User: What shape does this take?
Amino acid sequence: MTQRLMRTSTVVVVLASCSPTILTSDSADHVALERVSQAFPRPVEGDFVVRNYTFATGETLPEVRLHYRTLGTPIKDANGVVRNAVLILHGTGDSGEGLVSDGFGLPLYGKGQPLDAQRYYIVAPDNVGHGRSSKPSDGLRSTFPQYRYADMVRLQYQLVTERLGLSRLRLVVGLSMGAMHAWMWGYMYPTVPDGLVALASNPVQIGGRNRLWRKLIIDAITRDPSWKDGNYSDQPTGMATAIGILGIATSSPLALQKEMPTAEAADRGLADYVGSELRRRDANDMLYAFRASEDYDPSPHLEKITAPFLAINPSDDFINPRELPMMRSLIGRVKHGRFVEIPVSDESLGHSTIGQSRVWVPYVERFLKELPSTPAAVSR
Assistant: This one.
């Protein structure tokens, strides 16, 4: 989840080396924007269809479509194994599209950056239930199988191995929901990734306040009579409440106070945010996405994670606040685990800091350099 409860901005931040250039929709030079768009290869998009898939609930679908995007070119070693693939995973309600955008991607995939797309092969899927992959709003609505996180990770694995032919991943990078998937990759498929990075997560079952705000979103939708058991013609009115809760949970108190210092500004900002999100979200899709996390609990499996693991949490994250002790107490059970906390700054946005890749990319760069047995194809 990288949504921000902030006024819609026309500012595009472009990172070149360490110096940001600010381009606005009013002043941007088309030539400059064209140079930006050429900073890393344009994504190649595709669809992978998994036939006769059985979900963890026992429900089935004759076809599950996974949409995905790739950047760069797979490079094989002397044994014919691709060694430069990186799987990057989005948050709840998002898609892989944002992960290959210029604003997010330049600090990661641009020339000379840690995951330079001229050297790495980047894979950014839309998870089931999200983006252009199979989801309830495609037509099945509330009869769509209730997928769980285990299903999402298994389908990611099938995409990577069956469609793309990858037996190894140099890195799995996950944001929010994707971070929780990274923990699961670590014990479900321990021999596939060389390293794992989880941005904004905790390696425990979702309980406490984290469960409370998620349950409020679920209840705001399902207890609204206009939801009609998922068979609505217009988005149920409870969606406005659900979106407002999501905006608060993924925001930063410092940033919001600066952006909305008065009651009038806060009310206007909330109205703008809810209105914008209502136009792009579907209640069934949102409901399914939040229910999917109910099987998440990597804590019994941490010793099975053998690949180097980097967990990064923003200090001002409402969802995974620094006051909670779980990460610090459990990261030691991961054989090669490390935890980094991003300090509060003018650039931090609470949970949504994960969408500001320039803030955390230095940690990933160091982690990559320390990964053992760097393949020659990648390090050249």
The beta strands are 11-16, 19-24, 44-54, 60-71, 85-89, 121-125, 171-175, 196-199, 309-314, 337-342. The CA atoms of residues 342 and 360 lie 8 Å apart. Confidence is low (pLDDT under 50) at residues 7-37, 375-380.
